[in-house]
Amino acid sequence: MASSMKFLFVLGLVLLIGAVVDGAGECGKSSPDNEAMKLAPCVGAAQDANAAVPGGCCAQIKRFSQNPKCLCAVLLSDTAKASGVQPETALTIPKRCNFANRPIGYKCGPYTLP
């Protein structure tokens, strides 16, 4: 519960001080930090590789799996880091959701999608 509250606080803070991207970036016209806010159901699974991945998380991650650049940018964003997301754990979520069409082997910064 404390993790969820921390995440929501960070998300609110990002909304207040974050800037909206004018051009098209990794995630189109939305910034990776704004997109990261949609992954609130994933916080526990992104911090613990043994935690169950909620269906709501899988639904959001599925959207990003179609765009690996955006998925990486979101999972490595300042918002994700501030909420305690561990990138190496978060990057296992598409596999843990059993997505057959996940971007296996995609390089995501220093990490590789399993």
TrEMBL record:
Residues 1-23 form the signal peptide. It comes from the Eukaryota. Residues 33-104 form the Bifunctional inhibitor/plant lipid transfer protein/seed storage helical domain. The keyword Translocase does not apply. The keyword Signal applies. Keywords: Signal. PANTHER family: LIPID BINDING PROTEIN-RELATED (PTHR33122), OS04G0415800 PROTEIN (PTHR33122:SF4). This is Bifunctional inhibitor/plant lipid transfer protein/seed storage helical domain-containing protein.
